[in-house]
Amino acid sequence: MWGVDRDAGVKCMKTDLERDAEGYLFQTDEWDEDIAHEIAREEGIELNETYWPVLNFIRDYHQERGITPDVRHLISFLATENKCSKKEAKVLVFKLFPYGYVKQACKIAGMKKPRAWSTG
């Protein structure tokens, strides 16, 4: 499904969107739900209705502030939305994205890979 161009990184064969060598989109505004499904499949995740509030929060936060939210902001959002503790919300994040917030959630949401970041 993915082709490698040594100079450009990874390209999505279906949509011809360029991604870096680790699979993050170069242009966050090229993202759509079909791309999310394709990246999620690559990560071994089958998206369902549980994932979309997380992905939409990441996208909306980025659009409003120009930066991708740190995981603590997502945890606070999920705790409020699900009327649960932050500890329970953190468990949910890592249940949905077992290889981590940056590695999976941010990538599936179409964010660029951060240079350095606290993930937990």
Structural summary, described in words:
- It is a single chain.
- This protein has 5 helices and 3 strands; from the N terminus they run E-E-E-H-H-H-H-H.
- With 120 residues, it is mainly alpha-helical.
- The protein has one domain.
- Strand 2 and strand 3 form a beta hairpin.
- Helix 3 packs across helix 4.
- The chain is globular, with a radius of gyration of 14 Å.
- The N and C termini lie far apart (31 Å).
- The relative contact order is 0.16.
- The N terminus is likely disordered.
Low-confidence stretches: 1-13
What structural category arises from helix and sheet content?
mainly alpha
Largest sheet: 3 strands, antiparallel
Determine the mean pLDDT: 85
- The H/E string reads EEEHHHHH
Describe the global form.
Answer: globular
Number of domains: 1
Beta-strand percent range: 5-15%
Strand tally: 3
Number of helices: 5
Helix content: 40-55%
In which order are the strands of the major sheet placed?
A: 1-2-3
Q: What is the end-to-end distance? A: 31 Å
Short structural summary:
The protein is mainly α. It has helices at 33-42, 52-65, 71-82, 86-96, 101-108, and strands at 2-5, 9-12, 18-19.
